[in-house]
Design a protein that fits this description.
single chain, about 45% helix, five-stranded mixed sheet, globular
């Protein structure tokens, strides 16, 4: 429960400096209230914010927690209608919001396209994409790393996987970002947020419907074709076996892969560059020994996770960290806090590229462990490897590093750098106060 010196935690309303560095805030809550309950509005469930590694890992791994608020409450899922129908229908079909058996069946179809072997086959193309983007970036004396590299890079890779021509990447990224305005921590950021997200959902649905029709007219070897060709049924949400994937379900899956596969990688790349520029010794070590990069990617994800929180619902009464959580309660799992828990990680606030991966939670855990983790690691590794050639000569451009107003999908909105071959650095790029939001 909230105390006088520990106000109710929340995902919104953070000061800019604390948003950029939330870890001192997490520390206070993790030490004093590792499972922190905040009552909800009248007639709505409260939320348990979970900060400790062991408790977060337990909730991620347990079937006593799931993704459906309706299932937790023991009621039928509401049928979306009206202005937001396309948005709600699309999100309801995303893999990350499904429970078994439907989750198991859909994930098994997709897993074949995300194996290490498939990712290995993509590495040459990923390397080419990174090289092309960085060549354009290096022609500029001052450039925004997010806009010029970190954002378009994963979108182009996902387009490659889906078989979408690269010229659509700008349009797809723009709609994908608008769609995310409906997420928990962004809803209400503006009066038109849900409307923009709903419009983006309809536009993306129609775009991928057209792509699906093209695959049926002339099948190609890409992920959309795999979903179109696969004849086997998926289980219905409630009543067992259902029919094959509908066009709208395939479209929703493609949109989910697009949104989940680009924003997290964008943030990981940008935050990795921030961390390395603030630690010239670590940067120099990676430049001298690029073979350290695979392990460094794991540590960079642990150190400053691109997804700071994920939600679950209690499907039964459960005790978590000696705290009773009633069925129907919302549980918000702070991955960023868990990854800095000193009970699990020695010197957790130190970026140590020699640290064993040791089950960090940056990619989740359990049945919802990130499907594209191998691809994401390859993108970050290849992207950083390409940047190592010029990062030692890069310095901040003297502009602030604003973070997107979102504690869930967490990362800089802009990162302006001087890339014209100049050396030297201009001090720390960011700091964060040791105080809670409010």
């Amino acid at each position: 429960m909230p105390t006088d010196d520990l106000p109710p935690f929340g995902l919104r309303g953070w000061p800019a400096a604390a948003l950029a560095d939330p870890y001192p805030v997490y520390l206070r809550y993790r030490e004093k209230s590792p499972v922190h309950y905040v009552p909800g509005p009248p007639d709505e469930p409260g939320t348990h914010y979970v900060f400790g590694y062991d408790q977060v890992a337990e909730a991620l791994s347990s079937q006593r927690f799931g993704r459906s608020a309706a299932a937790a409450a023991g009621v039928a899922a509401p049928r979306p209608a009206g202005h937001h129908q396309a948005l709600h229908t699309m999100i309801a079909n995303w893999l990350v919001f499904l429970d078994p058996p439907r989750h198991t069946a859909l994930r098994s179809r997709l897993s074949a396209e995300f194996t290490p072997k498939v990712v290995l086959g993509l590495r040459a193309r990923i390397r080419d994409i990174a090289g092309e983007l960085l060549a354009n970036l290096r022609r500029k004396d001052v450039a925004d790393l997010v806009a010029e590299f970190a954002a378009p890079f994963p979108v182009l890779v996902i387009c490659e996987l889906l078989g979408i021509p690269g010229e659509h990447r700008g349009w797809l990224r723009e709609r994908s970002v608008r769609l995310q305005e409906a997420s928990t921590s962004r809803a209400g950021a503006g009066p038109d947020g849900y409307a923009r997200a709903g419009t983006a959902a309809r536009e993306l649905r129609d775009f991928f419907r057209d792509q699906i029709r093209q695959r049926r007219d002339g099948p190609t070897a890409d992920l959309i074709s795999l979903l179109v060709r696969e004849p086997g049924p998926l289980p219905d949400r409630a009543s067992g076996p259902g029919g094959p994937l509908s066009d709208d379900e395939i479209a929703a899956t493609c949109v989910h892969l697009l949104t989940a596969g680009h924003e997290t990688t964008t943030h990981t790349l940008a935050k990795s560059v921030l961390a390395l520029l603030d630690r010239p010794g670590t940067l120099a070590e990676l430049c001298a020994s690029p073979s350290l990069l695979p392990g460094a990617v794991h540590e960079l994800v642990r150190f400053d996770s691109p997804v700071q929180a994920v939600s679950r619902w209690a499907y039964q009464d459960v005790t978590l960290g000696r705290h009773c959580i009633r069925r129907g309660s919302k549980v918000m799992l702070l991955l960023g806090s868990a990854n800095r828990d000193p009970r699990h990680f020695a010197r957790p606030d130190v970026l140590d590229i020699h640290r064993p991966p040791d089950r960090h939670l940056g990619f989740g855990l359990g049945i919802h462990y990130c499907l594209g983790a191998a691809l994401a690691r390859a993108e970050v590794e290849i992207g950083l490897a390409a940047m190592l050639e010029f990062l030692p000569d890069v310095r901040p451009a003297g502009r602030p590093v604003p973070y997107a107003d979102d504690l869930v999908f967490h990362g800089p909105a802009q990162l302006w750098l001087r890339t014209g071959g100049r050396s030297g650095r201009a001090g720390p790029l960011r700091t964060g106060p040791d105080r809670p939001p409010g």
